[in-house]
Each structure stands twice: as C-alpha cells, then as structure tokens.
Amino acid sequence: VKGWPVTTGIPFPIGELRNPTHVRVLDPSGSEVPSQVKPLAYWEDGSVKWLLLDFQVDVEEEGEATYTVEYGRDVARAVYDTPLKVERVKDSDGNLEAIVVVTGPLKLKISRDGFKLFNGVWLDLNGDGSFSSDEEVVDEGSFSGVELIGEDGKLYSSINGPADLEVEEEGVNK
Fold first, then answer.
1. DSSP-H helix ranges across 8-140
2. Cα separation of 55 and 174, whole Å?
3. What pLDDT shows up at residue 134?
4. Rg, the chain, Cα only
C-alpha cells in the first residue's frame, strides 16, 4: 500500500524536546519522509510533553515496515513542496468570507454566508493546474446546504446565517 496515512502521539520526557521543528520521520532506508507535527501538551518548563505526528508510509500488503522518529537539536525536518494549498478569502473589511482548498486536481470553496458545505467544487480535468468554469462540477446554486429535522419537527438549516470558518490544520499531509 502506498501513502498509507499514520497519525500517532509521542510522549517526551521533561526538557527533552524544546522545538517541534527538530523532529523528523525516516523510512526503512533511512530517507526522510514528509511529516507534520503538532504539540498537544507542554511541560511546566515549556518543553513538549506530547507531540502529534502525521506521515504516510509505503508497505507491502500483509507486510511490515519500520519507520524511525528522529529528534534532537541537530535534527531539522525538510520543507516539502505540496499541492495542498489553503487560501483565505477576505471581504473589503478584512473579514474572512470563504476558504478555498486546492489539493492538486481538486478545488473546493467553503463560504461563510449561507453555509452549504461546498459553495463550489472544481476538478482539473485537463491537468493544466488551473480551474476553468467548464471544470466546475458543483456550483453554488446546486447544493441547498444541510438540513436537519428535530424531534419536535422543527427544521434546522445551515443556510440560515453566517457560519464560523476555521482552518484547523494546514501542512504537508493535511
């Protein structure tokens, strides 16, 4: 299996890891693989207590592969180019209006007003790296949002008013 996602938490003793940029993952051959880290908890001295680590592995079906986490002052994680891009679209007052996510061949627009989950979806059908109007597969008018009916029969709709938008993670893997 190629590119199987792995997410794990790693504990560190107090004082052991001061900067999460000094952590990287090595594949079975000793080559670094793209990884994403996020400190989840800190010790009283400011060092990392728990680190969330995301990376992808290649392993044969029913096989095993050993990946190594390397850390220390002399360790520096490489910067990898990724097709994953996040754009925050602001209105004239500087308020967040929409988030546009591009994964490479796919582009998604999520708007704050009248939240419909996706306000636009494009697929780069010709592989030229750009998205034209004829590559739009879902437009703003084709999705009516999310609707739920409560036990009392009341209709709840995601398009009634503005939604809060927030990018929770942004990195090489997710």
1. none
2. 9
3. 92
4. 21
Torsion over CA of 127, 130, 131 and 133, rounded to 10 degrees?
A: -100
Give 153-164 pLDDT, tens digit per residue: 998 877 766 777
Instruction: Please calculate the CA angle 34-89-141 and round it to the nearest 5 degrees.
Output: 105
Rounded to whole angstroms, the Cα distance separating 98 from 107 reads 13
3-state secondary structure of 25: strand
Q: Where are the beta strands (DSSP E) in the chain?
A: 4-11, 23-26, 32-33, 35-42, 48-57, 68-71, 85-90, 96-102, 106-111, 120-123, 136-138, 147-149, 155-157
Cα torsion through 140, 144, 146, 151, rounded to 10: 170
Distance separating alpha carbons of residues 157 and 20, to the nearest angstrom? 41
Length of the chain: 174
> What is the SS3 assignment for 151?
coil
Cβ neighbours around 44 below 10 Å, total: 7
Average pLDDT over residues 148-157: 89
Among 45-59, 68-82, 87-101, 110-124, the minimum mean pLDDT is found in 110-124
